[in-house]
Amino acid sequence: MQVHNVTADAETFxxxxxxxxxxxxxxxxxxxxxxxxxxxxxxxxEVDAVVLTHQHGDHVAxxxxxxxAYDPELLCYDDHPRRTRRISDGDSLxxxxxxxxxxxxxxxxxxxLAFVSETTIFSGDVVVYNDGAFEDGSFGRTDMAGQSxxxxxxSIREILDRMPEGVESMYAGHGDEFHGDVxxxxxxALERAERREPKYPDE
Length: 203
Description:
It is globular, with a radius of gyration of 16 Å. A hairpin with a 2-residue loop joins strand 7 and strand 8. The longest helix is centred in the last third of the chain and has 14 residues, at 149-162. The strands form three sheets. It has a six-stranded mixed beta sheet with strand order 1-2-3-4-5-6, with no helix packed on it. A six-stranded mixed beta sheet has the order 7-8-9-10-13-14. The chain has helices at residues 36-41, 57-60, 63-70, 149-162, 182-194; strands at 2-5, 18-21, 26-28, 49-51, 73-76, 85-86, 92-95, 98-104, 113-116, 120-124, 127-128, 138-139, 169-172, 178-179. The N and C termini lie far apart (39 Å). The protein has a single domain (2-194), classed as Metallo-beta-lactamase, Chain A (4-Layer Sandwich). By secondary structure, the chain is of the alpha/beta class.
């Protein structure tokens, strides 16, 4: 499965939006980068579906533009006027060449989902490889209204419980992608979240 970060060249704040090519060409999050449609077109002529990890602005600001350009299905947990399928915890969906399980993972966002296959995780913002706060294992911020560190911790534990041992690729909503022992990265993120220390102490 080929995965491209189609917002990698963004000059404004955005999430990482990943285009997974394969049996089913799927965009995981749409991002907020103007021109994302052109970046997608560099890799694919069609997009079968857009799957959302959650609906924070940096993940969905360009969603309508993508939907208008490619007319894909829209799959997400929370309500959206253009949603074609609701994804719930435990649901199965095909991304690229692999079958993924949706893992409901609130804390950073009430509608957050991560997607896990035998080899890969699209982790959204619940857990990331690096983000400026921590290297080699970090977690989504929980210091804003409606967020919860306790729920975030529970979600990371749930991901660890349900993530197969062979997962070796992590595509997170922010920071770099990671290839290697993903479980170790997620375990370090959990340890840091469990300290209950501020993630960004200077803010």
